[in-house]
């Protein structure tokens, strides 16, 4: 059993930051990571949700941006290593669909997470022009 909770301030939530450090890769750039955490903690267009076990263990986190009334952007999604491949990520995406009722969900990712998004039905588009030196994908899920 699990439940979802909104995290209203990532800056003061150390366990959330540790989990998100697996999601946002800024090698040797702690200031860049701190800037992202601050960005996602401010303003009403970003929302962060955690999935918590019955024993109050943090299982995963999803950060979304409300681009417009119909479009959600997944800015970050992270699952505790010991709970990966158990459907936690899918539960988080389904929760966002349930509470936000978007018609489109977007996410950018690399090769590490491409299979996760494919399993959820996202279409992929390589982002060569935006990221010529890295392999990045724009993932898009159209609902309704």
UniProtKB/TrEMBL annotation:
InterPro entries: Acyl_CoA_acyltransferase (IPR016181), GNAT_dom (IPR000182). Gene3D superfamilies: 3.40.630.30. Residues 5-144 form the N-acetyltransferase domain. Transmembrane segments: none annotated. Coiled coil: none annotated. GO terms for molecular function: acyltransferase activity, transferring groups other than amino-acyl groups. This is N-acetyltransferase domain-containing protein.
């Amino acid at each position: 059993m699990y439940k979802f909770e909104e995290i209203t301030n990532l800056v003061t939530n150390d366990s959330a930051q540790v989990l998100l450090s697996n999601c946002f890769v800024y090698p040797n750039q702690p200031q860049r990571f701190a800037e992202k955490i601050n960005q996602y903690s401010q303003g009403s267009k970003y929302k962060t949700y955690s999935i918590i076990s019955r024993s109050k263990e943090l299982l995963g986190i999803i950060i979304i941006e409300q681009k417009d009334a119909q479009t959600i952007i997944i800015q970050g999604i992270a699952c505790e290593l010991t709970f990966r491949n158990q459907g936690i990520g899918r539960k988080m995406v389904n929760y966002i669909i349930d509470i936000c009722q978007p018609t489109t969900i977007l996410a950018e990712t690399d090769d590490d997470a491409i299979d996760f998004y494919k399993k959820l039905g996202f279409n992929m588009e390589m982002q060569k022009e935006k990221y010529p030196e890295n392999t990045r994908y724009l993932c898009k899920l159209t609902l309704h």
